[in-house]
Amino acid sequence: MIKVLAARDLTLHEVKQKFNLQFVEDPAFFPEWQVPEPSLSIHERWLLDKAKADFFYLDEYPLHEEIVKLVVLSPILSVAGFYGRPFCPVAERQVEIEVEESEEWIRGRIDLLVLNEQIWVTVIEAKSKRFGVREALPQTLLYLLSETERRLAPPSSEGSPSYGLAMNGSEFLFVKSVRGEQLQYGFSRLFSLFNPGNELGQVVGLLRALTQRE
Fold first, then answer.
1. Which of the two residues, 65 and 161, has the higher pLDDT score?
2. Number of domains into which the chain is organized
3. Which of 59, 112, 55 is CA-nearest to residue 88?
4. Is the pTM of this model over 0.90?
5. I need a surface site. Which of 13, 121, 125, 175 has the fewest CB within 10 A?
């Protein structure tokens, strides 16, 4: 009998065990995230500064993930240029992936998939400080693994990287995965609104850089 598991209920350890994933700590695995902060217009900088200010105001109250999308994620994607050609955002897309040599299927939901280049955005609910961005990593890795990715995004050859962004409103972590005999993955550094300045500009710069890769 086939067993269907919810992606949100799996731990990172369970995902690694079921799909034989290998974490790569070597900085040379994911050098792409180390890009300089982009040159932003006055209006773009204003949008990102306002997004940060609005988040800090709303952070005093319980924050549902839909509010996080509106207040923080939407300005980021707008400034990054993801609402115009050649990109096509798709929201609330269900994904399924089969566990090899097991009668198990894992079912989950992509909060946002930006098509054209393989950029996946996973948003987790941020009701309290205990919901760290790492809570989204199992889902993000599953989505990068899923057959839905192959159907919706341009096919990727063995060894071709895919990228995801996990966020909870205040924290942002990029994930890189490379397919092969064993799927490897690694992380960028953690970007945070609680750091000095406004690191949303760096998040935008990295999104732009990853989608301009050939």
1. 161
2. 1
3. 112
4. no
5. 13
